[in-house]
Specification:
The chain has about 120 residues and is mostly beta strands. It is about 5% helix and about 20% strand. The protein contains 1 helix and 6 strands; from the N terminus they run ββββββα. β1 and β2 form a beta hairpin. The longest helix is centred in the last third of the chain and has 5 residues. It is globular, with a radius of gyration of 19 Å. The protein starts with 12 loop residues before the first strand and ends in a 9-residue tail after the last helix.
Length: about 120
């Protein structure tokens, strides 16, 4: 019997994820050149710890599998390992990339109403 499952190739699209005003094309590849000897390519996720992105309302966008921050609080009876998807602030373990809803990590984004209250167009930001 022939196996109809094709192995992914480096550069093939794994999935497209839209979250927080951003679109991520997750492709198969290798994190390190040395990983090539281990077998098939794996989905490559953006390094959102090294290059953080934030939603329009200032919450950090994180990958499910990234290492958690200092505010990590494990979901009751759901912990697999220490990663963001196991945190109470992560929306769903099913989401590959999501928005961390931890208020301590939220950026303070000035609102238009704040600028409307000033008498001049200059700001201190």
């Amino acid at each position: 019997m022939k196996d109809n499952h094709l192995s992914p190739s480096e550069g093939d699209l794994f999935m497209t994820v839209a979250v927080g005003g951003y679109t991520f094309d997750l492709r198969y590849g290798y994190y390190e050149d040395s990983d090539r000897s281990l077998g098939e390519p794996v989905p490559i996720y953006p390094d959102l710890k090294k290059h953080p992105l934030y939603s329009r309302d200032g919450f950090p966008i994180v990958t499910a599998v990234q290492s958690p921050c200092e505010y990590y609080t494990v979901k009751k009876d759901e912990a697999r390992e220490d990663c963001c998807c196991d945190c109470i602030y992560y929306p769903s373990m099913k989401d590959e990339i999501g928005i961390c809803r931890c208020r301590a990590r939220q950026l303070m984004i000035p609102t238009e109403s704040k600028y409307a209250q000033t008498e001049s167009n200059e700001t201190d930001i």
